[in-house]
Amino acid sequence: MPTIRILTDRVANQIAAGEVIERPAAVVKELVENSLDAGATRVVVEFSHGGRSSIRVEDNGSGMSRDDALLSLERHATSKLVETADLDRLGTFGFRGEALPSIASVAHFELQSRPAAAPEGTEVVINGGKLVHVRACGLAPGTRITVSHLFNSVPARRKFLKTDATESAHIVQTVRLYALACPQTAFTLVEDGRVLFQSPVCSTLEERVGEIFGRQMTADLLLVDLAEAGLKLSGLIGKPGVNRATRHEMLMFVNRRPVDSRTLNYALIESYATSLAKGRYPVAVLFLEIDPAAVDVNVHPAKREVRFRNEGAVRGFVIRAVLQRLREAGATAPTFAPAQENRPGMPPPDHLPGDPIGPVAPVAPSMMSQPFRPFTPFPPARPAAGTGSPSAAASPPPLPPHSLAIQNPQSKIENPASLAGWRFLGTAHGDYALFEAPGGIVVLDRRAAHERVWFERLQAQFARGEVASQRLLFALPVELDAIASALLLDRLKFLHRFGLEVAEFGRNFFRIEAVPVWLEPADAEIFLRDVIGLMREGRLDERKADLAREELARLAAQKAVRLPPTASEAEALALIAQLFACTQPHLSPAGRPTQFEFSRGELAKRFQR
Length: 609
Ligand code: ADP
Ligand code: MG
Hints:
Blueprint: E1 5-6, H1 9-15, H2 24-37, E2 42-48, E3 54-59, H3 66-71, E4 77-78, H4 99-105, E5 108-114, E6 121-127, E7 130-137, E8 142-148, H5 155-160, H6 164-181, E9 186-191, E10 194-199, H7 205-213, H8 215-218, E11 221-228, E12 231-238, E13 243-244, E14 250-254, E15 257-259, H9 262-271, E16 281-282, E17 284-290, E18 295-296, E19 307-308, H10 311-332, H11 365-369, H12 384-388, H13 390-394, E20 423-428, E21 432-437, E22 440-445, H14 446-464, E23 469-479, H15 482-490, H16 492-496, E24 501-504, E25 509-516, H17 524-536, H18 545-560, H19 569-580, E26 595-599, H20 600-606
Parallel strand pairs: 2-9, 14-17
Antiparallel strand pairs: 1-4, 2-3, 3-8, 5-6, 5-8, 6-7, 9-10, 11-12, 12-17, 13-16, 14-15, 18-19, 20-21, 21-22, 22-26, 23-25, 24-25
The structure holds adenosine-5'-diphosphate (ADP) and magnesium ion.
Magnesium ion is lined by residues 30, 33-34, 94, 99.
């Protein structure tokens, strides 16, 4: 058992990090970290009323002697750090020696602890920072800390607490993160006497993920394990095509510590770039192991931010590791297409009205064989003289391949008053429709166009308060986590106004009873989860009704579109006509271009006519 020392002022000042206990979940975090640091293989967390009435964390770890128990409550008392240089070698969660005294100063605090070798335990009780008593007590080896009446003496803090449901949700999330970080420790979480979650000792992360998120989730994940000079990445990532509307299931750990790192988040998102639609996020539980000297965990005391000394190297490594795994998986399970939107064998119930799925129209061979990439049909702003000269046209300046996507679509096609002179040439690569138009050749992104049409149609319906919903024959049960339940409960009425009827039937359990007509019932659960994702990000604020309607319409448009694999002439022309009847035809709801044009002039120039 390590002994506790007081940090010198010098070291304390160098750390210069005021511990902030801003909410009940922060207390839980600190206590659970201490239990894990003490080598516990079993941790029980109990709380009531969102943690404000009481929080208790009990472990079977190393325990503390009477002297150590008292010392642990002194500021900067820690058994884990002696010199600042040790900060570079941190293998423990805690190191500041500030948590216990901070908590004890704002609550009623009871500590009971006993090292295995001691015949009895010690009990220390502190109230609002003042010692009440120290005495011997009976206790199994380990430590039990009970914090009650949190912030009673600090009304200002208390005022900032959210509803019990919200605070409770934060506690659940915190315990989850540490349960993922330490599968070999058994975890029990009890709220108001009810077991919310219980996991035995697990031998693998996969098992623990199954315990926490359900077995179903593990089927969607791939194991990652790659080591390179001084870096190791392990854990689980979503298979290609598995994604969420929010970042909440991108869980990252550095040296086992749950962290927020822009570098890691971006690296992950970038790795999925090709298979991830805009506004969707990967699923991951990833552990980075790195020389502690190369990480700064002390950036922000209360938050989970970390910085890497060499952000670029870490980023590159993570991208390589994830890409390699995705590529391997892609070879065996090509699920890059959004599965729920292109279900084979199921007729698309809701493509644009009046247009049966026609046979593939013949595709102009010249267009098919034309390599699009090397073209620079829309040179970005540059001296006009250069691009106008024949020599410039003969050898177009090299442009990055994405230059097609960044041209200004506004300037291209005039809204056709009628479609006179338009001819449908065919679909290409499934997603694109090609047209001959009086001014040139138009390439249309069918999905982007459909989404725009649906988006404006739904927005108009929402604004008029028109709701057409279909009652489900069998209500769909949905189990949510505590945060999601709390958010959803607050907005059941709001969703009802959009045709989505959800009823609560038991804690964290809901039933979807009716869905809007444009939504395929089979997509109802995923749509509900996506809507909750928007709520989590504060993007469905009822007080900003216009914005909320817009967010909802954007999400709904993605779900409403069912793209037939090919388009008939009638369908393609109808789509163009409907697109140009929109107020904003040039961009998809997510801000991507819907189409672009090779003008006849550009074609002539290209062929040096
Ligand atoms: P830190 O974790 O930063 O060292 P804390 O204030 O959280 O600071 O804890 C102070 C000290 O009390 C720890 O260093 C540890 O020695 C001891 N301690 C706290 N909680 C426990 C526990 N559950 N089991 C054993 N020792 C503990
Ligand atoms: Mg600690």
